[in-house]
Amino acid sequence: MQNKGFVRVFSILLALVCLYYLSFSFVTRKYYKEAAEYANGDPAKESFYLDSLANKKVWFGAYTLKQCREMEVTLGLDLKGGMNVVLELNVPDVVRSLADNNPDANFNKALDAAYARQATSQKNYIDLFAEEYKKLDPGAHLAALFSTFELKDKITPQSSDAQVIAVLKEELQSAIDNSFNVLRTRIDRFGVVSPNIQRLETAGRILVELPGVKEPARVRKLLQGSANLEFWETYNLTEIGQQLTAADHALAEALKSTKPSSTATTDTTATAAKSDLTAKADSATSETDSLMAQINAESQQSPAAGQMTAEEYAKEHPLFALLQLNVDRTGRYLVPGPVVGYAKKTDMDKITEYLNRPEVKAVLPNNVLFRWSVKAMDDNDQFYQLFALKVTNRDGTPALSGDVVTNAVADFAQQQIGRPQYQVSMTMNAEGAREWARLTKENIKRSIAIVLDGMVYSAPTVQSEITGGQSQITGNFTQDEGKDLANVLKSGKMAASVNIVQEDIVGPSLGQEAINAGIISFALALILLMVYMCAMYGLLPGMIANGALVINIFFTMGILASFQAVLTLPGIAGMVLTLGMAVDANVLIYERSKEELRAGKPLARAIADGYSNAFSAIFDSNLTTIITGVVLFVFGTGPIRGFATTLIIGLISSFLTSVFITRLVYEALLAKEKIKHLTFTTSISKNFLNDPKINFLGKRKVGYIIPLAIILLGCVSMATIGLNNGIDFTGGRNYVIRFDKDVRTDEVRAALEPQFKGGSVGVITIGSQNQVRVSTNYKITDNSAGIDDEIIGKLYAGLKPFLGNATQEQFASDNIQSSQKVGPSMADDIKNSAVLAVLFAMVCMALYILVRFRDVAFSVGVFISVAVTTLCIIAFYTLLWKIMPFSMEVDQTFIAAILTVIGYSINDTVVVFDRIRETIKLYPKRDRYEVINDALNSTLSRTFSTSLSTFIVVFVIFLLGGSTIQSFTFAILLGVIVGTYSTLFVATPIAYEIQHRKSLKAAGATAAAATA
Fold first, then answer.
1. How many CB atoms sit inside 10 A of residue 23's CB?
2. Are the CB atoms for 356 and 254 separated by under 8 Å?
3. Is residue 282 predicted with pLDDT exceeding 90?
4. What is the C-alpha separation between 826 and 498, in angstroms, rounded?
5. What letter would DSSP give residue 636?
6. DSSP structural state of residue 753
């Protein structure tokens, strides 16, 4: 083998990289175990323990625990539990707001028509809107709609339609970016470990994944709430210092009366306590003296105070034990400004609770509001600032609402201290400009806080009255900080709602079951594969192949870790399937080596020729499956992408391990003369399919009839029974509900139907007799805030006879194992993407075969074979879905299975075609009928071994992998059987038919030419 040195070095380096990335998972597992032991079953304590160590360097002296958790292999929602949400910005509302809610009838009709078309079109929404508007009013100009005051600097009455469309696209993207940033900040505040938020290709859609979330109602409220941008006047700390001290005293007295023991825990030392507030404020102190000077003077008169322990100090000063006041470097004077002080992230909720207590509010100004900064003061994300806002309006509203902002841009300001500084330029509408001028005039040399979602983003100090609505906000911003603030300011500009169009909730109990099912199926499949390889090819060849499988798993997991990919149950299925397909390479090599040995070649030469002759078939079969994986990744979402990612990585890894690493092992053993008499056979396989003589082409007509009969039966069933379409394709909600005892689906359906009048209800058993899945499209278009609670209430009312004494809250938390929602627009998009994916994959396969084999006969044979396989699987699904004891829904995972089958079925076909091409090169004048029959027979043992090994693997997943992927694996099982059949009796015979007719035509033309 050439380039052995390169293969060794590359393999070693890859192993080191994989080991490096996987090491983070082992480190975090150690601390998870410690946290679990410390918490003793209390989730709050476990979270506190991990948070307390978040910034501790725990690996290589460079990586903190927080960084290690970000680098580890994370579990997907189906394994860990949590929430997956696809949000959609109401794009028509954005365009309406840009047109200042123009009442023009054609304008509003065009918006609605464009929204309807977007479900089935790949075009941008703005382009669709322009097309629809032109249909309704061909002579109209878009500038007439959008030359508003807010867009006066970008669109004029003379602007062309192309210019208007460009501006609208820019503004729409800005609105999506604003929504994305608002959601990202909200999720960061929610405290989820390893959240995932990303923009989707469809305009206005955002994917949010929140592992471990157990409060879906709170998440829905958090994600769907409109952005609330506000400008607030602020207090100076020196104005409320006395009241804060009085509040601390009042709080201490109140806590003492209710709790004799310490009420707060703090890391504050006695020395820090002395430098902070260590005595009560005295109203007799001169107003010109600093509050801190007074406190320090009193502290010096009371030596005992400086000797307080942290616990004693927390008891005497519960507020100031947690909140460090904003003082100067001497620690004696309060710093004028809106910042009251700072506190640890873990103490923020307790401080907020203290400040909202009645006895504290009684001594504070009645118009003060306390709000936290959105970002931490330090790089370690530990300390946050507390701001004091001033309520100046009688109704409690802010001084100015954020919807007056028309634009905000971060731009370069100046170069300072070796780095560029940025400022944010803000523009307001006419009404906002007037109010802003008044507000800034009244607050010169004071701060105005910019607040979004109740968090302070910035509090710039007003230097002078600002007129005209143009302002520059400075504050030593970096470029990213400036962009973030500009996005915050623009977030109040668009009157657009955000709706949930798809939602999946997986309970942690279901997640644990999925983990167990995945591990068991993976382990058993691996063991069976190892046993199979040893049984068919001997102990040593089998163990070498098995070693390659283990290395393949290691490489796949390491590469997944390096991509920070999320491991899901379909991902585990993809890995197990990869094992089955990885065996194919070793089977091909061993079968070719057996042939070379039977031809009389010595062992070393037979192995070398076995590897070289099998290479092209292995390369082609792997590449075609990788193409399928790419199609899956491009068209799929969520778990399907996880499956595709794992499949692609696993196939690339298996190519390296099966083709190169195993060959290095054999060459090393041969060089040391460790092996001399390998036959790659055992007593079981010695005479198995040895030189078969089956006339496949002679039976091709019968071979055509069987799949055609299945497809015809499927067409009849499709017309009468139809397919069991999942909510991915129809829209609706699914709820997996578990009961304490077995239930009958007809009884559950009868109990629920009266509750969901006006909508359909479906009930099937999932996994076991005490667990069902309820599907309904009831009010699926309703996006009101309380619709999810309403449906939970209806489920509870209908199922109450099966629940015993459980309350509705207990039902929602204990009985509902998972839920899923797909809106109608999302369902249409998924359906169209699925059809495109299947067609695209089939065309890609046919084109690849055409390019690779340079013969249209092979390409047509592959396309028809793939089409027959796909149609047969669909036919089986329409014929069997009412008979089988598990769900056979046609949904995204079914499409993933179809695409996987397309890639897999071509493997067999490519191997046969590769043998035909090889034989034709050696014997160009041999009869094509004989060549093709010989190719089918000579590769039959390989076809059987590969199909059987893959079937065993997938069958194990089907039995043990859990109910969530049974339909997926059943489709692949059918694909393995039908795909193998199609290779033998459809693809190859059709290729022969085309070649035979072509040769007859050529012979006829030659005879005609000779006669002439």
1. 18
2. no
3. no
4. 14
5. -
6. G
3-state secondary structure 283-318: CCCCCCCCHHHHHHHHHHHCHHHHCCCHHHHHHHCC
CA–CA dist 95, 169 (Å, integer): 10
The single-letter DSSP state of residue 200 is: -
Contact in structure between 446 and 502 (CB atoms under 8 Å): no
29-43, 234-248, 707-721: which has the minimum mean pLDDT? 29-43
- At 178 the three-state DSSP class reads helix
- Backbone φ and ψ of 406, nearest 5°: -100, -25
> Do the Cβ atoms of 560 and 646 come closer than 8 Å?
yes
Determine the pLDDT at residue 353: 92
Annotate 654-691 with DSSP letters as a single string.
Answer: HHIIIIIIHHHHHHHHHHTT--S---S--TTTTTTT-S
Q: For residues 120 and 835, what is the distance between their CA atoms, to the nearest angstrom?
A: 11
The one-letter amino acid at 393: N
Q: Which is higher by pLDDT, 384 or 292? A: 384
Mean pLDDT, residues 953-967: 80
Question: CA-to-CA distance for 428 and 402, rounded, in angstroms?
Answer: 9
Three-state DSSP string of 423-475: EEEEEECHHHHHHHHHHHHHCECCEEEEEECCEEEECCEECCCCCCCEEEEEE
985 — pLDDT class (breaks 50, 70, 90)? very high
Length of the chain: 1012
493 - beta bridge partners?
A: none
The pLDDT of residue 299: 38
Tell me the pLDDT tens digit for each residue of 482-493: 777 777 777 655
* Single-letter residue type at 594: K
CA-wise closest residue to 826 among 517, 502, 602, 565? 502
Q: Quick one: how far is CA 346 from the chain centroid? A: 28
Please, are residues 88 and 496 in contact by the beta-carbon 8 Å criterion? no
Residue 817 DSSP code? E
Is the pLDDT at 270 greater than 90? The verdict is no
For the segment 386-408, what is each residue's pLDDT rounded down to a tens digit? 999 999 988 888 999 887 888 88
Q: Flag whether pLDDT at 58 surpasses 70.
A: yes
d(CA 177, CA 491): 9
Q: Show the tokens assigned to 408.
A: 């905000």
Whole-number Cα distances in Å, 717 to 495, 786, 931: 49, 40, 40
Q: Considering all CA atoms of the chain, what is the largest pairwise distance in Å, rounded to the nearest integer?
A: 129
Q: Are 212 and 78 a contacting pair, CB within 8 Å?
A: no
* H helices, E strands: number in the chain: 37, 23
Average confidence (pLDDT) over 751-757 = 86
Indicate the DSSP class of residue 402: G
Residue 872 pLDDT exceeds 90: yes
Q: Is the pLDDT of residue 226 over 70?
A: no
Between 33 and 294, the more confident residue is 33
Which pTM does this prediction carry?
A: 0.69
DSSP state, residue 699: G
Using CA atoms, how far apart are residues 307 and 315, in angstroms rounded to an integer? 14
Q: What percent of the chain has pLDDT over 90?
A: 20
Q: Tell me how far apart the alpha carbons of residues 499 and 204 are, in angstroms, rounded to a whole number.
A: 10
Q: How would residue 419 be classed by pLDDT, with cut points 50, 70 and 90? A: low
Structure tokens at 540: 């040593």
Which pairing describes strands 205-211 and 383-390: parallel, antiparallel, or unpaired? unpaired
The structure tokens listed for 380 are 């370690």
